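Lecture 7 notes: from sequence to structure.
We start with the chain below.
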Amino acid sequence: MVNDVVIVGGGTSGLILARELGRRGIEATVFESEKKIGDKADKASGILSASGLSKLGIGFSDAVVNSLYGASLHAGRRSLHVRSEKIQAYVLDRIRLAEICSREAVDAGAKVVTGRRIGTEELERFSSEGKIIVGADGGLSTVARWAKFPPIENHVLTFKALFEKSDRTLEDEVDLFFSERFATGFFGWAVPYGRGIVELGIGTRSGSWNSAEAFRRMLREDSVKEAVGGGKMTDSKASIIPIGMRSKTAKGNVLLVGDAAGQVKATTGGGIIFGGACAMIAAEAVARHIDNGKPIEDYDSMWRKLYGKDLSMHRFIHAYYSRAGEAGIEKLLWVLDVLGMGNFLSKYGDMDRPSAMVKRFFLRGLAD
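Predicted structure tokens for the same chain:
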């Protein structure tokens, strides 16, 4: 195997890339700063769309802790309920998912090194040796700073906790809460994990109030108290999520994937589906470079051609609800309800690809 690729960051995007490279006969070495793959992976929520997961080729079944069929969106006194007859999303154990991705990468021929933080001196050495360097090390990427990629301007601060011994009865739907009283520029969520466990979380715009304080404010809401079903708060974690794509994600012998590239849904902060899909494109770009001398910079246009429109639409939707405020979202939910959009979303909603959903909407309108 050709050993030419260094991947900094052992999250799902980096590991999927290593797996795909291995299947092409290109050996990659993944460096993860944590002592174990999956350590701190559960700082982020594990809601992933069923359709998106199916395209990543991960044997994720052992990581599933719950299946979701619907959601309720709450703003002010208004709610919009959406439910499908089919599973729309899975709640996954993020640590277990990372372990599965690591095993698949190793089985494909990759090397995974844990407890190893890569600094600028080592990056310089790898570069001088002609290695292809991939930054898969999150929104605050060391690789991106070292290679002087343009920054990601906007971030969301999150805080989440588990509530155990919950008496919540609805265990296959998620609740989303929009209110500037606690979630400036983002929203709160309640996700049932099954077995009397509920995850309650919140995101708030970076530069506004502290995410832990925003979480405490959210807990005062009666609808939120109802969603956690009287459970006892246990494990809590905070994190930072990039909102917005970098204007450049490849140059020279360096490229970025996942959160490091800003391949994140601005509407929800979810990065696994798009990050993993772009990692698969990165593997193709690297293989073309090694086999045929194609420039690595092709990766940038390749992934944007397939997913740039949808990621831009997620940013547009996020910008809209950030500006609208609670009263504006309350009116929007009323309008959507009157137009019967709850039923439409139940049938045609797509958590990842809003462009496909818009296309279905207009085709449906023409058919009617």
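Points to note: Residues 33 and 39 are 10 Å apart (CA to CA). Confidence is low (pLDDT under 50) at residues 357-368.
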